[in-house]
Amino acid sequence: MLIPSGAPHLCAPTRLSNLPADGNSAPGHARWTMTDVEVVDVGTRACLVEVDDAVAAASLAAWVRGAGLAVEEVVPAARTVLLDGVDPAAVRALLPGWSAERAAVPGPLVSVAVRYSGPDLERVAGHWGCTVEEVVELHTSLEFTSTFCGFAPGFAYLAGLPADRAVPRLETPRARVAPGSVALADTWCGVYPTASPGGWLLLGTTDADLWDVGRAEPALLAPGTRVRFEARR
Amino acid sequence: MSGACPASASRAVVEVVDPGPLSTLQDRGRRGWAHLGVPRAGALDRGAAALARRLVGGGPDDAVVETTVGGVVLRPHRAVTLAVTGAVCAVRVGRRAVAHGAPVTVPAGALVMVGPASTGVRSYVAFAGGIAATPVLGSRSTDTLAWVGPPRLAPGDLLPLGPSGPLPEPPPAAVGRPREPVLRLRRGPRADWLDRTGWSRLDGASYAVAADSDRIGLRLTGPRLERRSGELASEGIVLGAVQLPPSGQPVVFLADHPTTGGYPVVAVVEDDDLDACAQLRPGDEVVLRVV
Lengths: 233, 291
Description:
Chain A is an alpha+beta fold and 233 residues long. Chain A has helices at residues 12-16, 54-65, 88-94, 100-103, 121-128, 132-141, and strands spanning 38-41, 46-50, 73-76, 80-84, 109-115, 144-150, 152-159, 174-177, 181-185, 188-191, 196-198, 201-205, 226-232. Chain B is mainly beta and 291 residues long.
């Protein structure tokens, strides 16, 4: 079950309202400078801001939400943040005020209890050259960060798996992956909120309520959220 | 016209007798949830839906019924005023033909038959008071990608209506919109994925609407557009984005589009041209114009 820590259901703007005026730098986050950020127009009312990686995108997205910009949608992705329903000139005027130090405020921490009984545990162990027990040990020792959602409502791309633990997707995707499945692909970890086809390697399942439109924050793992997995029998 | 006065009726409901191939509730869509993977949804032909609302004195956020080609059959349980706009179709109340694009007052229990469409795809049925289905994430729109929002209409569904005020002065005559099937394009964020001649070849190119077009996207078939090979990391997508998969056949993303995607967006359709996409049928020709 869930052991929320901090305020997992607060949405990003609320979290950012707690930002101290000068911000605090958080160690361990990627650093980048304005020179690494490019703004590309998407039609007349949207633009893509290009950054180095998904963690930077999530961080920039959280900062933009707190910056008072008039914008309808802020969509972080693997290397970009889409700002939709916005004046691109206002974005270009705003971005020089952004810095990694100010943006890198840790999000809320959510604990997700997992029954590690997935059909691909052996396969992952094979890729990593270790035992199934060691797979579980590593997966539960890492802190992941939800960087962006997509694929299905509430499906979060969780960063945090080291590059040398990347795993390939299945050659033939499964027709049905059960809801609550905890899975790996490349260096991403994800939890399927609903039943769907899927090609990720399945480690186990959770009962966590990943998606509930009745909640103020419908996605348990909204971008910016930090995630730890713990083993349950 | 019946002499019933819908403004004085208490809460009315409308029964769905036959939803046709696909009928959904749509308003202006939900904003602010794209970062969680929730499409905006909303009426595909926004102008037609807005006109239907105005004709019955509704507000800009009222929900209406959107039909798909085959139309819809409804039965109000109390006298109501309604208006049908969008795809051209016959509208009958019982055995009586009534106006398309004008407010019509319907007596309690009458069968209202909308469609099938003779021109276009999607008709809109607005009711005085608006359809008071329970909003989901701030909207009564059904999204057909993730199925957030009210489910698609099914036989026997009862749609509650909100309280209605007096009917407004009729808006200026609803002008039929004989639109040139032209989609004006701006360069998209990944226009450079087209080869050197690709962008200029888009200007004036003619494409046919494919049969698998839907509320998610208008799929076009025609001259193959050569694009750079390789993989693009997934990125956020806007309404009207023209995505180019490796097949070289472009897709125009409509209201229910996925919020992120990994194929390059080479162009973006002008916002004013998107309503026309809602009414294009499989096989219809569209001309692309670069602005």
